């Protein structure tokens, strides 16, 4: 593969302006990361300490291997959701190594709202379960939760039960779930350890029951204590819900790690053995390459060169359909195909992308999609040229591709371009986004402009004058609302991505996720739906 020769000048004003703008966004990103690490009010943390309890992230660190990498997922779920528990909800989730094996770990934040589950936490758990199943990962749950947040019950009850279904589906697929219960696991939460392959209860701390003493009293008039209803010793000696009785938190984590020695996991399909070449260009330069303003164009090859091994990649059809870059490369030694937007998607770009996806499937190579497009090209000439049928080919190829997909939002992702580039609704294995990125039907200005044309047409049909002043006010409101709801902060809050990242960390994120997808055999598709020629 050829080494890419960068045309970027780090001393140019454009580079410096991009860098300054991106650093401002990263400052905001880091502040939100700090919010997501909130583990409860001081009084709740102090109470936990007095009871000898560890905090959620401390438990997580102990269960992971020493110096294990940890890919935290959906850390800002619920960031902008009113009435929720804030960024990240009441669960810390991610992938790391336990006994040298890739493992999903979920740790309830019992010191934040009692670990109860709000809307964002509920849907975060479902996405985490989906990732574990798709990537064939065992799961360790560090449980201390008060169950569903009752004011949110109407929003989460009908969907929340899917989490228990996922546990049994993973078990059927041979993917072990281990749950350690350090405190409350009440009502529906009792089914987390109850449906796990292994359950470990901490002595004199675990409280696992479908209904606590007050509800039992109301329902049956029976008097009972927490221990009688759901204590660790009762479940270990009488009910059999607990498989192991842990003396304390450390002992519970020790047992879980001991079990992981014997848990069967898929053998790595590929482990790079050759020396890994770092990119020729420093990752810090990405901040000067990618503009904070998505309206400013840039060459996606410059980004690829800063994440690829040795800055080498083999570009496919380099002279054709050049608003979509298609290239094969290696990242941390893992072979991968990249589709990266270099502007609006024309018919030629769509056809090239569809062929590239087919070839990658034939050769069992996973794909990375980098979004920076306003969508498919529109206009009379392009409609006559078959932009719909050609755009449909790309969507067909994306939909029926069977190699793992990883999606990265690096700029705009508008309209059907989001679909053709494997957006959230096309179920990529992982989807990450830069803090400058935007997702929506179209750009805010375009949306407001379309609405203005419709309103002017409506006024004309009714034979009344168009109110220019009111129209300008409405247009400004529409732009502001659309801009907010297409932002990276809103997207990550609504769980449309698996996390926002500092662009300088792109290579590390992609390298780790490629290690995860290569942890099982990769087999591409041999068939597609009907292609309209």
List keywords for this structure.
alpha/beta, seven-stranded mixed β-sheet, 533 residues, globular, 15 strands, 21 helices, 41% helix
Q: Quote the distance from N terminus to C terminus.
A: 33 Å
The secondary structure category is alpha/beta
Share of β-strand residues = 15-25%
Assembly state: single chain
Largest sheet: 8 strands, mixed
Strand tally is 15
Helix content: 40-55%
Mean pLDDT: 93
Assign an overall shape. globular
Please give the structural blueprint.
Layout: H1 13-36, H2 42-50, H3 56-63, E1 70-72, E2 91-98, E3 101-108, H4 119-134, E4 139-145, H5 153-160, H6 162-172, E5 177-186, H7 191-194, E6 198-202, E7 207-209, H8 213-220, H9 226-230, H10 232-239, E8 244-246, H11 249-260, H12 286-289, H13 300-305, E9 313-315, E10 324-331, E11 334-341, H14 347-362, E12 367-373, H15 380-384, H16 387-400, E13 405-414, H17 416-420, E14 430-433, E15 438-440, H18 444-462, H19 468-485, H20 488-493, H21 506-517
Helix pairs in contact: 4-5, 4-6, 14-16, 18-19
Provide a short characterization of the protein structure.
The chain has 21 helices and 15 strands. The chain starts with 12 loop residues before the first helix and ends in a 16-residue tail after the last helix. Strands 1, 2, 3, 4, 5, 6, 7 and 8 form an 8-stranded mixed β-sheet that branches.
How would you describe what is shown here?
With 533 residues, the chain is α/β, with parallel strands linked by helices. Helix content is 41%, strand content 17%. The chain has 21 helices and 15 strands. Strands 1, 2, 3, 4, 5, 6, 7 and 8 form an 8-stranded mixed β-sheet that branches. Strands 9, 10, 11, 12, 13, 14 and 15 form a 7-stranded mixed β-sheet that branches. Strand 11, helix 14 and strand 12 form a beta-alpha-beta unit. Helix 4 packs parallel to helix 5, helix 4 packs parallel to helix 6 and helix 18 (444-462) runs antiparallel to helix 19 (468-485). The model has no long low-confidence stretch (mean pLDDT 93).
């Amino acid at each position: 593969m050829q080494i890419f020769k960068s045309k970027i000048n780090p001393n140019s004003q454009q580079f410096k302006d991009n860098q300054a703008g991106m650093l401002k966004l990263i400052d905001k990103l880091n502040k939100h990361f700090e919010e997501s690490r909130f583990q409860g009010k001081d009084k709740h943390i102090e109470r936990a300490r007095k009871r000898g309890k560890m905090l959620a992230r401390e438990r997580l660190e102990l269960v992971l291997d020493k110096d294990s990498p940890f890919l935290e997922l959906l850390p800002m779920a619920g960031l902008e959701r009113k009435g929720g528990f804030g960024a990240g909800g009441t669960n810390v989730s991610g992938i790391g190594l336990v006994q040298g094996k890739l493992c999903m770990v979920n740790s309830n934040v019992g010191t934040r709202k009692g670990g109860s589950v709000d809307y964002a936490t509920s849907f975060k758990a479902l996405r985490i379960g989906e990732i574990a199943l798709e990537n064939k990962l065992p799961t360790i749950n560090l449980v201390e939760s008060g169950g569903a947040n009752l004011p949110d019950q109407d929003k989460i009850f009908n969907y929340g039960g899917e989490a228990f279904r996922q546990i049994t589906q993973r078990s059927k697929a041979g993917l072990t779930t281990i749950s350690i219960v350090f405190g409350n696991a009440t009502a529906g939460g009792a089914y987390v350890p109850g449906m796990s392959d292994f359950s470990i209860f901490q002595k004199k701390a675990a409280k696992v029951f479908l209904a606590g003493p007050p509800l039992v009293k109301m329902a049956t008039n029976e008097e009972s204590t927490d221990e009688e209803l759901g204590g660790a010793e009762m479940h270990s000696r009488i009910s059999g819900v607990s498989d192991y009785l842990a003396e304390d938190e450390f002992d519970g984590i020790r047992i879980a790690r001991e079990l992981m020695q014997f848990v069967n996991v898929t053998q790595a399909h590929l482990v790079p053995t050759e020396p890994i070449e770092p990119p020729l260009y420093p990752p810090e330069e990405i901040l000067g390459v990618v503009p904070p303003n998505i309206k400013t164009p840039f060459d996606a090859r410059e980004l690829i060169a800063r994440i690829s091994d040795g800055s080498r990649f083999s570009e496919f059809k380099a002279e054709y359909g050049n608003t979509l870059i298609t290239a094969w490369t290696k990242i941390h030694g893992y072979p991968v195909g990249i589709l990266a937007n270099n502007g609006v998607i024309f018919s030629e770009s769509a056809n090239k992308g569809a062929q590239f996806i087919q070839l990658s499937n034939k050769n069992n190579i996973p794909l990375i999609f980098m979004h920076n497009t306003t969508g498919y090209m529109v206009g009379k000439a392009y409609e006559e040229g078959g932009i719909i049928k050609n755009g449909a080919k790309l969507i067909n190829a994306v939909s029926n591709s069977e190699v793992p997909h990883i999606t990265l939002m690096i700029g705009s992702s508008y309209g059907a371009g989001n679909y053709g580039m494997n957006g959230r609704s096309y179920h990529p294995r992982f989807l990450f986004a830069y803090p400058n990125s935007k997702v929506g039907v179209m750009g805010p200005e375009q949306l407001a402009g379309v609405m203005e044309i419709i309103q002017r047409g409506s006024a004309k049909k009714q034979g009344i004058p168009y109110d220019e002043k009111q129209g300008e006010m409405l247009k400004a409101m529409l732009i502001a609302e659309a801009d907010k709801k297409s932002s990276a902060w809103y997207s990550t809050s609504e769980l449309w991505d698996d996390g926002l990242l500092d662009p300088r960390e792109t290579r590390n994120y992609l390298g780790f996720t490629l290690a995860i997808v290569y942890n099982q055999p990769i087999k591409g598709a041999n068939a597609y739906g009907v292609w309209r020629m």
